[in-house]
Amino acid sequence: MKILQCPLNGPRNISEFVCLGEVKPVPGPDAGVAQWADFVFMERNAAGRVREWWLHIATNYVFLVDRDTRSDEILATYRIGDPRLQHPTGEGSAS
Amino acid sequence: MSNEPARLPARAGEFIDRERPLTFTFEGRAYGGFAGDTVAIALTANGVTILSRSFKYHRPRGILSLASCEANSLVEVNGAPNVFAEGHVLRDGDRVRAQNYAGSLAHDRHAWIGAFGRFLPVGFYYRAFFRPRGAWRFWEPYIRRIAGLGRVDVNAPHGYFDKAYLFADVAVIGGGPAGLSAALTAAQAGARIYIIDDQPVLGGSLNYLRPDTAGVRAGKERDALVTRLAATPQTTVMTGASCEGLFADGWLAIVRDRRLYKLRADRVILATGALEQPAVFRNNDLPGIMLGSAAQRLIKAYGVRPGNVAVVLTANDFGYGVALDLADAGVKVAAVLDLRSAVTESALRSAAFARNIRIEVGTKVSEALGRERIRAVRIARVQRETPTKDGYAAPFATVDCDLLCVSTGFAPNLALAAQGGARLVYDQRTAMHRPEDLPTGVIVAGAANQQFDLAAVIADGERAGRGISSAEPDESTSGVSHPFPICPHPKGKEFVDFDEDLTITDIEDTIASGFDDIQLLKRYSTAGMGPSQGRHSAVNTIRIAALARGEPESRIGTTTSRPPYSGETFGVLAGRSFDPVRRTPMHHRHVEAGAQMMVAGAWLRPAYYGALHEAESAIADEVAAVRARAGLIDVSTLGKIEIRGPDAAEFLNRLYFTAHLKQPVSRARYAVMTDATGAITDDGIICRLSDRHFFVTATTSGVDAVVRSMYLWNAHWQLDVDIAHVTSAYAAVNLAGPQSRAILALLCKDVDLSSEAFPYMGVRTGHVADVPARLLRVGFVGELGYEIHLPAGCGEFVWDRLLEVGRGFDIKPFGVEAQRLLRLEKGHIVIGQDTDGLTHPLEVGMRWNTGAKPFFIGGAALQAHAQRGIARKLVGFAIDAGSAIPKECHLVIEGSEIAGRVTSCAYSTAAGHVIGLAYVRPHQAEPGQIFSIRVDGGKLVQARVVTLPFYDPGNARQNA
Amino acid sequence: MPLGLLFQGFRRRPPQRILPAAKPLRQRYDVVIIGGGGHGLATAYYLAKDHGIRNVAVLEKGYLAGGNTARNTAIVRSNYLTVEGVAFYAESVSLFANLSHELDFNIMYSERGHLTLAHTDAAVRTARWRAEVNKHLGVNSELIGPEEIARICPRLNLSRHARYPILAALYHPPGAIVRHDAVAWGYAAAAARLGVDIHVRTEVTGIATEGNRAIGVETSRGTMHAGSILQAVAGSSSRVAELAGLRLPIRTVPLQACVSQPLKPFLDPIIVSGSLHIYVSQTARGELVMGGATDPYPLYSSRSTLEFKEGLMAHMLELFPFLAEVKVMRQWAGIADMTPDFSPVMGATPLQNYFIDAGWGTWGFKATPVCGKRLAQTIANGKAPDLIQPFALDRFANFVQIGERGAASVGH
């Protein structure tokens, strides 16, 4: 069972979390059909470093995770608003 | 076949307890043994050498390794199939049976298959059995019956199994010399250690190997290490425990008896030893042919003499140790055959020579002779020095024997390392694999790390205990494993994989057929796919493949080692199978009232109140009570969410299809949630309790996803709003019917319940039976009614009080089935029944005021749907008397095409005929139009589109 | 005794080659197929056989058919939900039934009957829906109750006191299991006999384009010009599509499976339970092959987990309590490309001459023959036939989905 370091709850078994998908720019309120279709359906689905939204089930805590989808490593986890998130994915140390 | 007693005198350190004899049966005959004996040991002690019949050719098989868990030793124990005879420790009264034979084990009727081996070459089933058409259908049942090994007892009870969690700083897998010294070293640094070994006692190879001429060193070393360990704090020993899997983040699966231990370790030391490997020659599978270490285990751990006259085939020093052990046990050693032509002197070899044991250097076994047991070997000279294919050479002598011990090499046991992602690379110099790319925190030590000299093994364990990854193995590891202990014979039957009955020719033919990649080789020939999973066959297979392809073994690669290591029962993996059940605060009242409870996700809800056979009448009575007087239903399972904050209204307005930004305080609104594809995902009621406070209900099964999407969307929007999931904090009931106001008024004194003061879709807070409550006037069932939300702890109390004061009005509790019917009469949809995963609001007649609500989740998608045009519409329909009643999901047929389907359908007493909801094509959706439904048996039934609702179209009753 | 065996037994060795020998890359191919699994090999075969297009290369980065074709649980059926899906998979079933003859290779096609168990009212409804659609399109399926289920599979636990009692089942008699590797090997051998080049250990590293047209392929062994290109690389679809500058509606997750030690036959039909998230069948070798839901988060790895087995076995024993002493022999995983609507993506892409076969999630193996045949037709004619039009990549741009969630997978 993999361990995920939750920014709020600390290290927990990964079965306590739900992966909510890749971080993608959300279309603005005036965005049209094409933009929304792209946002909803199209994925980068990268093999390598990704940044995703995750949720801790028991506490409903939403946070961000940098993961390597090839090696199954958790690279870093962030609470929303963490200043390290300003850097593009590729930086930011493990928490 | 021998009837002579095979037990040796007792010795220190043996695994058996001679004070505790036991009896067991094998194939219906009773035998004796001792506590600590495994099935294989006890049978050998009783002179029984055949354990099983092989998978394909049904050849007699006996002990091979006593370590590698191969199919040779699979038996049925007390009805459980495919038990390793060498692993199952006997209990008094055990009933053991052999597997995979017809008739008897000694005279298997299927043994004739072996005579037809040339007609059953590798992959034979791919090129036969399919012509003419239907041929496979004819042959397959027969092949299925012959295939398989163990028999399943379909009446076997589901026994007790459980699980436990363990935590360690260091987990040492293997309690032999390397593991023990690693544990001791790590413990010195203060670590909490678990040491795991699958044998009944610690010691590993020290319990059977003979590194010295006197034969005392191993035992002494073991005693010293074990004593020191026992005196070391913070170390826990688990013997008789098998590590079946190494998973991410130091997560180990350990099985002992009927318990699965899940061990989390910061560091893992794999001191798993090396598996001695068989040599390949004609008839190398005969009972009586075993690995040298197997014979040593028999002698030293179990006090069993493995035979009377032995030949040892060796290519290293270990074989001479075996010869000395055999001689000490009273076995006549007829010859030691050394595959090596030039051998440097060693103390063990000299000692064997000094005891007048015949030693033939540069000599191999070309063929073993015997029927049910070996009776002699034909021996030949090794022609070539270099480790390339040594062709067939005519034998120069025959040596009689009833035991052949093979010590021609080892394979480091790296299965767990490979499970963790390590690559196994063949070291051409040592003819063994070593691991590369070990996962973080995993270290290999001892024979698993190609260390075989005892002092080097112990030193290697200490290194591992200090946490230092290993360096290149030293010189002592060369000359331990022969690079090609494989002797082809013109008449074949030189077995490379015992589980699958594969010979040298089978491997070569597989490659010649084009399956030359090691993975294709495995899949086509099935080499390594049996219960041993390649533990005794993979290395020799690679060597034959390397030769056939003209490439070094390191280029051939390996197949992938996967969990479990030796096999885990379904039961131990399942454990006690906890499956949570959720009960509402009023659960006991429903059971006491005789409700039939139904499963709704993890919840239990009352379907109706009455016996099974009374379902129809019970439900009808409940429906009638609600329409005529009053009913009470427990709706505590409804999802409930508190939304608070300055941006609460804005938040809900963006999230829901329906409009809530300007929703007045103390009003409720029917709310529909759509996802970004425009599909309806949930519905409920949104109540505005204040400017900044909303109370939201959701469906029982949908609320978790609703809450998650709320949290996710607000992570994007960062609106100033607090979201609290409060489903289990509140109990809730729906009090519905023309008398509901009168009943409620008896218990609720602080809310003006009059129709003017508290209209339909109003929200009030007050007290019911002195319990704080939220009152929602909602009309799901189409009558005057109140949905009352209460603190969960008070649910049962208020339920009782309502029924009590309602008795005078003949109130009736009603369940989910009645509610479904009642809501259908009002034409209300049920999410997940009247909607599917793609239904969007425009298909179910919901209007969308684009002007009032420029943005909500799913808006863009709905634009796309609207532009493309609606393909289906949900309509109400009626069916006149006399027709069959359609069932949910019966199809609407127009011409020869599917035009839609029925989603809800039932007979309505209030309407006097069958009513329902169905999807039809838009042009069929006008009230009065007729459409066809195909019911059971293929008949078409006519239905008439009807405006909704079916009941009380003016809504007078619900608005009362 | 089958004549074939007698003939083989008396024939002199060495045996005939089945899989083709390695060849050098040509400079130009009319069609380059990226991906040497079942789909890619089948497409190559039908291009040669149905359309006479033989200058075809199949490029496989690993060993032949070593991706999901080697890892699936080999179930063939057409009891889907949508009209589009049922018609599509029904054609696949009929191609499968004849495939051993077509390829002169025994794929061990074994019709066993397929039972999808319903444990809730909602599941019963969906089962009825599928049965009705199937029947309408001439596919043999029906909704049956516990008594009939007991007749077909007497070993199932049909107790009313089980945690999730079985209420009904969708019974699909044509449901079958197959030797999955043999399908790929059969197609490969037959395609090679017709002149197709199969290049293994050849990884595609780039797609060469000219304006909005794909014109060639760069590989680890060299480059080649291509008239048309098809990518059929389940588990790597997004990675390869990225080389062509395309994004896909795909999330890639592991799909685990496991197998028991070989047992004497006791289970005839294929059993699926949506509520319990499991499916199981017994092979001709006697092993129980079992699978469940996909892994919970995206990952490009076929690593195994303990929790997968634990959950699966807890549910297996609810259906078959007497199996507690049976052992798991091995577990593994494939890598599944999941789409939002659980239907595949086939046909043209915005890049001219570049075709795609992707989004096969947990429903790809059973489509091998129909996919190969119809994509060959698409490439040869430059236009997707009606049967696979609904699965076009651009459906998502208009929020059109072919919803097969309930019928395609368990655990959702």
Quick structural gist:
Chain A has one helix and six strands. Chain A is mainly beta and 95 residues long. Chain A is globular.
| Total helical elements of chain A | 1
Fraction of residues of chain A in helices?
under 10%
User: How many β-strand stretches of chain A?
Assistant: 6
Overall number of strands of chain C: 19
Rg over C-alpha atoms of chain A, rounded to the nearest angstrom: 14 Å
| Biggest sheet overview of chain C | 8 strands, mixed
Secondary structural class of chain A: mainly beta
Query: What percentage of amino acids of chain C are in beta strands?
Result: 15-25%
Strand order, main sheet of chain A: write it out. 3-4-5-6
Radius of gyration of chain C: 21 Å
Give the amount of beta strand of chain A, in percent.
Answer: 35-45%
- What is the 3D form of chain A? globular
Please state the oligomeric state of the protein chains shown: heterotrimer
General form of chain C? globular
How widely separated are the two ends of chain C? 47 Å
Structural class based on helices, strands and sheet pairing of chain C: alpha+beta
Mean pLDDT of chain A: 91
Helix and strand run of chain A: EEEHEEE
Largest interface, with Cβ-Cβ < 8 Å?
B-C, 103 and 91 residues
Question: Layout of SSEs?
Answer:
The complex is a heterotrimer of chains A (95), B (960) and C (412).
Chain A: E1 3-6, E2 10-13, E3 17-22, H1 33-41, E4 49-56, E5 61-68, E6 73-78
Antiparallel strand pairs in A: 1-2, 3-4, 4-5, 5-6
Chain B: E1 17-26, E2 29-35, H1 39-45, E3 52-53, E4 60-61, E5 74-77, E6 80-84, E7 95-97, H2 112-115, H3 135-146, E8 162-173, H4 177-188, E9 193-196, H5 217-230, E10 235-238, E11 242-247, E12 251-256, E13 259-270, E14 274-276, E15 289-291, H6 292-302, E16 309-314, H7 318-328, E17 332-338, H8 347-354, E18 359-361, E19 363-370, E20 374-381, E21 397-400, E22 403-407, E23 410-412, H9 415-419, E24 423-427, E25 432-436, E26 442-444, H10 454-465, E27 495-497, E28 502-503, H11 504-512, H12 518-525, H13 538-549, H14 553-556, E29 568-569, H15 570-574, H16 587-592, E30 595-600, E31 603-609, H17 615-628, E32 631-634, E33 639-644, H18 648-655, E34 668-674, E35 680-690, E36 693-698, H19 703-717, E37 722-725, E38 730-736, H20 740-747, E39 763-768, E40 771-776, E41 785-791, H21 795-806, E42 812-813, H22 816-825, H23 859-868, E43 873-879, E44 891-894, E45 897-908, E46 913-920, E47 930-934, E48 940-946
Parallel strand pairs in B: 1-7, 8-9, 8-13, 9-10, 13-26, 15-22, 16-17, 16-22, 17-18, 32-42
Antiparallel strand pairs in B: 1-2, 3-4, 5-6, 5-7, 11-12, 12-13, 14-23, 19-20, 20-21, 24-25, 27-28, 30-31, 32-38, 33-36, 33-37, 34-35, 35-36, 38-41, 39-40, 40-41, 43-46, 43-48, 44-45, 44-47, 45-46, 47-48
Chain C: H1 3-10, E1 28-34, H2 38-51, E2 56-59, E3 75-76, H3 83-97, H4 99-103, E4 110-111, E5 114-118, H5 121-136, E6 142-144, H6 146-152, E7 168-172, E8 176-177, H7 180-193, E9 197-199, E10 204-210, E11 213-219, E12 222-231, H8 237-243, E13 251-260, E14 270-273, E15 278-282, E16 288-292, H9 306-319, E17 327-338, E18 345-348, E19 354-358, H10 368-381, H11 405-408
Parallel strand pairs in C: 1-2, 1-12, 2-9, 5-14, 12-19
Antiparallel strand pairs in C: 3-8, 4-8, 5-7, 6-7, 10-11, 11-12, 13-16, 13-17, 14-15, 15-16, 18-19
